[in-house]
Design brief:
heterodimer; A: 806 residues; alpha+beta; Aldehyde Oxidoreductase, domain 4; Aldehyde Oxidoreductase, domain 3; 6-stranded mixed β-sheet; 20 helices; B: 285 residues; Uridine Diphospho-n-acetylenolpyruvylglucosamine Reductase, domain 3; 4-stranded antiparallel β-sheet; 34% helix; 26% strand; globular; flavoprotein (chain B); FAD (chain B); FAD-bd_PCMH_sub2 (chain B)
């Protein structure tokens, strides 16, 4: 009789649950060009909006003359700050507690800033009219250097803040100062450094760059004057938060706002913030009574919406003679641009930068971050990053390499000596975090063995000798990085954005025939949620992943959640999904027991069914249970099989990884050839190994771009010099190296399925890996540090500075 | 990224195209593959009132190799240059360079004529044609005339082509037996050269008997460096000759700083590209 029942292993495989490299269900439409993005939305009577943008980085706006623009056939309206002021919408709050101009209110603070919003019947009329809006500017002195911005006689950028000595995050000590955020014990740290055997000191710049998703930002706003309902489609990484903020800003009741995130072509943090385009589109729709579409072009996107990084990190790291790290000190000068529009949890103006003690057991540490206004675009978003973790990881992984040079130690040996040991978890860091779990030594040893680290060093030494003999013009660099992430924001007790707690949610409905729909408060931008969340549920409730629809992004149907960024979807919404699944299972157990005519405690869950303990031949499948839930009167139970869970995580999760790459550096051309990349990730329980691998490949490629050339650069006048994809480096397949991926599994002890999140790990760990490799190549010639990006001419400059060009 | 309005013309013959160019005057622009002009129009850095599309002109695309002489129609795409076996045999330098232009998608559309006539100092073909000593046929209201590639370029987007002329054909002698190389450093696929060198060499008895050198994106126009070639001819291509050629080339180029790097870097890379191109060409001579 038993042979009639397929073995549990076969049944589990059929579910395609946790651990299955299930193919992405999204790809059927994406690979056929059938995705539906914001710009694919076409509504009856829809009109188009676009901006007149400032060519100046700092200027007074003396006057705006709309006449010629309004005369263009098809132009409906030209909005300026004056038009928005009566509605109180010429300024808007930022996520960081600052405020930002929606349209230039008397002055502009960065090149590309929005000055006027032209609304027209079509994009061509709109573009023609933009050229005809006459703006009279009076240029003002420009400051693009955050250190110069803090000089006493620096130009005053934010005249609206005149006399305000208190900002959203404490005192402001200068007219261009935003906040000082301090963590740790400064006095104790400085005492340790003053008395240390060895101290390494360096200024490390993580340059300004940009998430640059393939799809730019955009929206369609449609105000239905009959129902009073506003529908807003947009490239939103947090649709519910947008709905709440839109309601608070506009005064439209929240139930009258529906926000929909359709397919999103990548976000990487760029689509978290609230942009003037959204506000202007809403206003224009209210004014015209017609749907209004606004979509950025590539230059708009690179120049104005949400840069990332731009941290100047002054570090000191202390150690004993034998290489035991005793203290870490860091001061950051953070360039926030014209407005503080960082997308961090509100209580963390420098995000989770205080994870900068990294993977090391450092007894005492101090971090101070000064936020500064400059004539650059606002943003400071987490570009595939959990709120400044990338900056922190780059800082510590460079500092450890620099300390190793000073100590004359191998950088790996120094890391192994200072790692937090497995038996120290949960580990309380000197800067206030409780690391939930980790096994760093195992991961590092596995990585070293995989790449034959000793062999690489021997090869490097041989090649160096050949170079010195004049037989080669190429140097070999080995880049090592070991990162610890902090993701899954986060516990509502300390994580909120503008007061919105950072929990997340999942609602599940099981259909009578045993299939299901799950809705979440997150929104996929390419992460594959429709694939992976179905897998979590498949394992929890015994319904095949193929029979589970996952839906996100429509605030009228999805439960409230804070969206997708900072690798928070799996740690938070993934947990909510598992917990909601467990509620389903609990009810299913009662139904099964009733159907099998035994006590609830006498049945047990087995992959896809409940069976009687000790009598597995007597069972009810989840399919049978689902049908009974709806169609059989069960005493004491309501009909139906649904559940909802709102999950407030008890802690962050702490993924980690060991990355090693090998690079050949041509000292004559500055060309760096990455010939090997090995990435070991520990993201806890692995939901879909294929998707993890894809995430790692994508993140490593972004890391390669950032380390080796990608930047948002400004000239002295505040002009963006990297405003197109000709100059803003996005690697093609040709520039992308082959990646070897590997893993260890250290489940999170507090996450329902032990998962930790992986999306941003490769960006966090990849940048220091690539950068360290460049530094490592030049180490024998006395280099300790050089700033990123390591593009050809800057690498050439290193070689030139070291006298390698004869 | 929305161009201004324009009238679209699609002539069927070179003569009709030339008449249109002459009658519409400076408000008209000829478009071939569109990979230079159309991005400029989308940025509104170019706003022609009339666009004369050569895609419909018969007989402008094609490659003819006969008796070692090569003739290429202006509308021949980079992809066609790469795929043509006879051209690869007569002038393998062209194929080597075309493979380093942009990416396959662009090469399916981008044409040799557009690349040459636009006068963009970043384009690869102008320097290459100077190296090959090509002649360009220009068709205008008065008929056709020929201009040598080495005399065609005056400055950025400033060439010997009159506004009412259309570049119709490129002709040069094959370089069978000569060593050749096109060395190009770029930041990534699709980028213009940081510096590039086109070199042709003939060796006789261990010495360089003839040489031709042209440099790309190192001035406001392609640089044919007779001085660099002269420094190589007669030498065994030893270190002294290479140094002399690089020094001579440095006297001819005038790079500007941009996001690819400062002037001293570009000069250095120009030297590296020239050395590598000579070495590779010599290995093939």
């Amino acid at each position: 009789m038993n042979e009639m029942i397929p073995p549990a292993g076969d049944r589990a495989a059929a579910l395609k649950g946790l651990g299955s490299s299930r193919k992405r269900v999204e790809d059927v439409r994406f690979t056929q060009g059938k995705g539906a993005y914001v710009d694919d939305i076409k509504l009856k009577d829809m009109v188009f909006g676009d901006f007149v943008r400032s060519p100046y980085a700092h200027a007074r706006v003396v006057s705006v003359n709309k006449e010629a623009a309004l005369a263009v056939p098809g132009v409906i309206a030209v909005l300026t700050a004056e038009d928005l002021a009566p509605l109180g919408l010429h300024w808007m709050p930022t996520l960081a507690g600052d405020r930002q101009m929606v349209l230039a209110d008397g002055k502009v603070l960065y090149q590309g800033q929005e000055v006027a919003f032209v609304v027209a019947e079509n994009r061509y009329a709109c573009a023609d009219a933009i050229e005809l809006v006459e703006v009279d500017y009076e240029a003002l002195p420009v400051v693009t250097d955050p250190f110069k911005a803090l000089e006493p006689d620096a130009p005053v950028l934010r005249e609206d803040l005149a006399g305000k000595t208190e900002g959203a995050h404490g005192p402001r000590r200068h007219h261009n100062h935003i906040f000082l955020w301090e963590q740790g014990d400064r006095a104790a740290t400085e005492a340790v450094i003053d008395g240390a055997d060895v101290v390494a000191e360096e200024r490390i710049h993580y340059h300004r760059t940009h998430p640059c998703p393939l799809e730019t930002c955009g929206c369609v706003a449609s105000m239905d004057k009959i129902t009073g309902k506003l529908t807003l489609w947009g490239t939103f990484q947090a649709p519910h938060a947008v709905r709440t903020v839109a309601s608070l800003i506009s005064g439209i009741a929240e139930h009258n706002i529906r926000v929909i995130s359709p397919d999103i072509g990548g976000g990487f943090g760029n689509k978290v913030g609230v942009y003037p385009g959204y506000v202007c589109s809403i206003v224009a729709s209210i004014v015209t009574g017609r749907p209004v579409k606004w979509v950025e072009d590539r230059m708009d996107n690179l120049m104005t919406t949400a840069f990332a990084r731009d941290y100047w990190m002054d570090g000191r790291i202390a150690a004993t003679k034998d290489g035991r790290i005793t203290g870490l000190w860091c001061h950051v000068t953070a360039d926030h641009g014209g407005f503080d529009a960082c997308a961090d949890p509100t209580k963390f103006p420098a995000g989770f930068f205080n994870i900068c003690t990294g993977s090391y057991d450092i007894p005492v540490a101090y971090v101070g971050v000064d936020g500064v206004y400059t004539n650059k675009a606002p943003g400071g978003v987490a570009y595939r990053c959990s709120f400044r973790v990338t900056e922190a990881a780059y800082f510590i992984e460079r500092m450890v390499d620099i300390l190793a040079i000073k100590l004359g130690m191998d950088p790996v040996e120094l890391r192994l000596k200072n790692f937090i040991r497995k038996d120290q978890f949960p580990y309380h860091s000197a800067l206030g975090w409780e690391y939930d779990s980790g096994d760093y030594h195992t991961a590092m040893e596995q990585a070293l063995a995989a790449v034959d680290y000793k062999g690489l060093r021997a090869e490097q030494a041989e090649r160096l000798e050949a170079f010195k003999r004049g037989e080669s013009r190429s140097l070999m660099g080995v880049g090592v990085a070991f990162f610890t992430e902090i993701v899954g924001a986060g516990p509502v007790k300390n994580c909120d954005i503008l007061g919105l707690g950072m929990f997340d949610s999942c609602e599940i409905r099981i259909h009578p025939t045993g299939s299901a729909i799950a809705r979440l408060g997150t929104i996929s931008q390419g992460q594959g949620h429709a694939t992976t969340f179905a897998q979590i549920l498949a394992s929890e409730i015994g319904i095949p992943a193929d029979d589970i629809t996952v839906e996100e992004g429509d605030t009228d149907t999805a439960p409230y959640g804070l969206g997708t960024y900072g690798s928070r979807s799996t740690p938070v919404a993934g947990a909510a999904t598992a917990m909601a699944g467990r509620k389903i299972r609990a009810k299913a157990q009662m139904i099964a027991a009733y159907l099998l005519e035994v006590h609830d405690d006498d049945v047990e869950f087995d992959v896809d069914r409940f069976q009687i303990k000790g009598a597995p031949e007597r069972f009810k499948t989840m399919k049978e249970i689902a049908f009974a839930a709806y169609n059989q009167a069960i005493p004491g139970l309501e009909p139906g099989l649904e559940a909802v869970s709102y999950y407030d995580p008890p802690n962050m999760t702490y993924p980690f990884g060991a990355y090693i790459c090998v690079m050949d550096v041509d000292v004559d051309t500055g060309v760096c050839d990455v010939r090997r990349v090995y990435a070991l990730d520990d993201c806890g329980t692995r939901i879909n190994p294929m998707i993890i691998e894809g995430q790692v490949h994508g993140g490593l490629t972004e890391a390669l771009a950032i380390a080796m050339g990608q930047e948002i650069a400004y000239d002295e006048d505040g002009n963006v010099t990297t405003g197109t994809l000709m100059d803003f480096f996005i690697p093609t397949a040709v520039e992308t190296p082959h990646y070897e991926t590997d893993h260890t599994v250290t489940p999170s002890p507090h996450h329902p399925i032990g998962a930790k999140g992986v999306g941003e790990s490769p960006n966090v760990g990849g940048v220091p890996m690539f950068s360290n490799a460049v530094m490592d190549a030049f180490k024998p010639f006395g280099l300790t540090h050089a700033h990123m990006p390591h593009d050809h001419w800057r690498v050439w400059r290193i070689a030139n500075g070291l006298g390698l060009h004869g | 990224m929305i161009p201004g309005s324009f009238d679209y013309h699609r002539p069927a013959t070179v003569q009709e195209a030339a008449r249109l160019v002459a009658s519409l005057g400076e408000d008209a622009r000829v478009v071939a593959g569109g990979h230079s002009l159309i991005p400029m129009m989308k940025l509104r850095m170019a706003a022609p009132a009339h666009l004369i599309d050569l895609q419909g002109v018969e007989g402008l695309a094609g490659i003819a190799v006969s008796g070692g002489e090569v003739r290429i129609g202006a509308m021949t795409t980079q992809h066609m240059l790469i795929e043509d076996a006879a051209l690869a045999q007569a002038a393998p330098l062209v194929r080597e360079a075309a493979l380093q232009i942009a990416d396959p998608q662009v090469r399916y559309m981008g044409t040799i004529g557009g690349n040459l006539a636009n006068g963009d100092p970043g384009n690869d073909m102008p320097g290459l044609m100077q190296c090959l000593d090509a002649a360009f046929t220009l068709v205008g209201p008065e008929g056709a005339r020929q201009v040598r590639a080495r005399e065609f370029y005056f400055g950025a987007y400033d060439t010997a082509r009159a506004e009412d002329e259309i570049l119709s054909e490129i002709a040069f002698s094959g370089h069978a037996g000569a060593g050749y190389a096109y060395e190009k450093q770029k930041r990534k696929i699709g980028d213009y050269a940081t510096a590039a060198a086109a070199v042709l060499l003939r060796m006789e008895g261990g010495r360089c008997a003839a040489a031709s050198v042209a440099m790309t994106n190192l001035a406001d126009r392609p640089i044919f460096s007779q001085a660099a070639a002269d420094a190589l001819v007669g030498s065994p291509l030893d270190a002294a000759a290479l140094d002399a050629a690089v020094a001579a080339m440095q006297g001819d180029i005038a790079p500007g700083a941009d996001t690819r790097g400062p002037v001293e870097f570009k000069r250095h890379v120009a030297g590296v590209m020239l050395r590598r191109a000579v070495a590779r060409a010599a290995s093939r001579a």
